Amino acid sequence: MHSTFLMNGTARLFDLDPSAAEVFRFDRSALLDEDEFYRSERLIKHAMMFINMLDRALQLLGPDSAMMSDILSELGEKHVKYGVKPHHFAAMGEALMGVLAELLGDRFDKETRDAWCEVYQLMSCDMIQASCPPCDQFSIHPGRRQSGDNWIIVDLAD
User: Fold this and answer.
1) Residues with Cβ within 8 Å of residue 83, at least 6 apart in sequence
2) DSSP reduced 3-state for 146
3) Mind listing the domains of the chain with CATH numbers?
4) Distance CA 51, CA 111 (A)
5) How many Å apart are CA 100 and CA 107, to the nearest integer?
6) What pLDDT band is residue 138 in, cutting at 50, 70 and 90?
7) pLDDT at residue number 110
8) pTM of the complete model
């Protein structure tokens, strides 16, 4: 499951927003073998950190949500230093929803999708606040992508 998430999620992310590859300092066109790109140690390490952060966030929902918010804010500050922009979070959310739909099949119903969108929205908002005005000034969640100074709705329906 991890390898499927890694391969498909990263491919979706970079297809949705090619500028995300720049954050990783990767030049996919420089690699002769695309599989080599997705097997790179650096990319695998990041995918595992992302999966572990999702797992940790789910475990801390509820009474520990303030602690999770603090952790995500610190993580957001690090991501700013790497060059991550708010629109990268929207593309990542879109990629995540696509991979979850693929992996879970019929179990990824509307209720499940809505729950994942809510969790990802909360996580990304905490991280984005590290470098941006308060999130309540604009709605940021999977299904929205920044285009210039405007937020556009992206249909995530299958």
Assistant:
1) 22, 23
2) strand
3) 2-153 (1.10.490.10)
4) 21
5) 10
6) very low
7) 93
8) 0.74
